[in-house]
Amino acid sequence: QRVMIAMALANEPELLIADEPTTALDVTVQLKILELLKELQARLGMALLLISHDLNLVRRIAHRVCVMQQGCIVEQADCETLFQSPQHPYTQELLAAEPSGGPASTAIGPPLLEVDDLKVWFPIKKGFLRNTVDYVKAVDGINLSLPQGQTLGIVGESGSGKSTLGLAILRLIASKGGIRFEGQQLDTLSQQQVRPLRREMQVVFQDPFGSLSPRMCVSEIVGEGLRIHKMGTPAEQEAAIIAALKEVGLDPDPRHRYPHEFSGGQRQRIAIARALVLKPRLILLDEPTSALDRTVQRQVVELLRSLQAKYNLTYLFISHDLAVVKALSHQLMVVKHGQVVEQGEASAIFAEPQHAYTRQLLEAAFLV
After folding, report:
1. Does the structure show a pLDDT above 90 at 350?
2. End position of a domain, from candidates 96, 124, 153
3. Into which EC class is this enzyme placed (predicted)?
4. To the nearest 5 percent, what fractions of the chain are helix, strand and coil?
5. What is the pLDDT of residue 368?
6. 27-44 helix and 2-9 helix, angle to the nearest 10 degrees
7. Same structural domain for residues 127 and 83?
């Protein structure tokens, strides 16, 4: 992103158009980009046109704000006036769309997932003989215990090992250490032995545009797991697909259409329906809202909360959006360079972080 800014500034423009310059960046990098834009604007005296759905970013950098809806500017005012007293209903809706509230109230059960000293080390090979000279310690000795019906939020900068941890827990990449699911030791099982348990552990990926096959219609995507696990007759499978789509707030009638015919928010609901249709106990949510605008994010957060309360689901929630993590998580784990630097009740950590790295993340997210 810094390279892109450097390219744009090479000819010292009078106007810099920054189109979603911090989308998909973690909070500390977002803050650095924000500070860089402010510094360059002051030094070069250039105008900055910032296009963003990140209202926190807009609030901290803009002098004037224009709100667009369906190609028209519905409201414009100086930044302070617009955020303090929005006039148009759409502006009010946008400002109200910031994730809020707390995680779903669920009964705390026994540990569903336990992880002991989990490690994922990638070898660094050099030389003609490709000898291993060192390791990238993506996950380095992590422990966790997650009760049934709870959400564990996992946060950290990009490259901290969050997604690698999630994939290792689901046995999708090789790892060392103990992984127990409902008391059953997963790390000693072969892939064939793990397969029947896959229906109990599902995943929703970050990119709703890339995680759904463009060659399959929605009905095929949602029902794929049912067919793989041979769950029910074709008629029963079709009924389960319809029920899952309704559960996530989608009309099942266009289920024979393809993913490109749906919006980003609808696609993410399809991905959630694909996970939900197998009636899992544990769902790994890997950045499920990062590609969505705030209004759609809030809808997805409320959907996940309601599904958890209804079915006593357990979530592993990986995200760099701390506002969303705060709205969903009962527990919080802060990861840096593959190691846990702080862990505990989410509400306590957000209220009073103990580690300097946690405070840095919260400050970068404007949560302190």
Report:
1. yes
2. 96
3. translocase
4. 40, 25, 35
5. 62
6. 10
7. no
Token pair of 213 as six digits: 């096959």
Helix (H, G, I), strand (E, B) or coil at 112: strand
- Phi, psi for residue 182 in degrees, rounded to 5: 55, 40
Q: Write out the DSSP string of 77-111.
A: EEHHHHHHS--SHHHHHHHHTS--S--------SE
Q: How many whole angstroms separate alpha carbon 313 and alpha carbon 285?
A: 12
At which of 96, 122, 156 does a domain end? 96
105: in domain: no
Which contiguous run of DSSP H or E holds residue 170?
none
Total tally of structural domains belonging to the chain:
2
Let me know if residue 104 belongs to a domain: no
Are residues 182 and 293 both part of a single domain? yes
β-bridge partners, 144: 115
Q: What is the pLDDT of residue 115?
A: 97
* pLDDT single digits (tens) 42-97: 888 999 999 988 888 899 889 999 999 999 999 999 999 999 999 999 999 999 88
- Nearest-angstrom CA–CA distance, 72 and 93: 16
Domain span holding position 31 = 2-96
CATH number at residue 218: 3.40.50.300
**What pLDDT does 296 receive?**
84
pLDDT in tens, 218-244: 999 999 999 999 999 999 999 999 999
350 lies in some domain: yes
Q: How far apart are CA 34 and CA 18, in angstroms?
A: 11
Task: Please give the distance of CA 33 from its chain centroid, rounded to a whole number.
Answer: 21
Same-domain pairing of 37 and 120: no
Band of residue 264 on the pLDDT scale cut at 50, 70, 90: confident
